[in-house]
Amino acid sequence: MFAVSGALCAAEPTAAPTDFCAQCHVKEVEDISEEGEAHQTELSCTDCHPGHKPKSLENIPRCNSCHAGTAHYDQLQCLNCHTNPHRPMVIKLPKKAHAECLTCHESQDQGLQQHPSYHSQLVCTDCHYDHGFLPECLSCHRSHGPSMTESSCQTCHAPHKPLEMHFATTDIPTDFCAPCHAQATSQLEATTSRHGQLNCATCHSYRHGTIPLCRDCHGEPHAVAIHAKFTSCGECHGTAHSLE
């Protein structure tokens, strides 16, 4: 940075304060012109820095003197993440950030709290070590089976409530279910009934653990007296995975 005379430093900004400040503060003006967001489009230098040292000792404002009204703006250590106020949306997360993240990401917090899992015991930056970074599930978790790839995971699992499994479609391949449900899978492979031709999610639709009633698909195909005597279809037909 080049030297300037005391007369220049003592002078008052004219009609173009940013150009005036740029004579000394080259880096700051460059930062704000490149990635200043609203700090560049809606403010001038002197809106935030109304004076200059040594005449004005308190010439660096607190963030919440402008940014207020939400839980996120109530955070006290803004510069922990927004390390350069002249590039305010270039965010560098500290190693263990959590509470400050949840002031913006409320729905993710609700998922973690309402549906406890191992993920609920982590802090946000254990997975999202850069702001906006989305890790691959398989960077921590093993695939259930050889046919499952990274793109398959969120077909069943939502990252912030991974044990609350909802199926995006009933066309989920049986191969996805088989590694955990080996007995049911082997029975379906052996059966000659039409159930063996169906994907698991066809019957256990949309939510893991759903167990349909036989009558949901089959109605009551026998005489009323038979249904009255045998209230459970399985008394005659065995299990749904191995029909007799």
Share of β-strand residues:
under 5%
Shape: elongated
Which structural class do the helices and strands define?
A: mainly alpha
- Overall mean pLDDT score? 88
The domain count comes to 3
Distance between the termini: 87 Å
Strand order of the largest sheet: 1-2
CA-atom Rg in angstroms? 31 Å
Report the biggest beta sheet as strand number plus sense, adding barrel if it closes. Answer: 2 strands, antiparallel
Count the DSSP helices: 14
The SSE order reads: HHHHHHHHHHHHHHEE
Low-confidence runs of at least 5 consecutive residues: 1-16
Question: What is the tally of beta strands?
Answer: 2
**Share in helix:** 25-40%
Keyword list:
single chain, 244 residues, mainly alpha, two-stranded antiparallel sheet
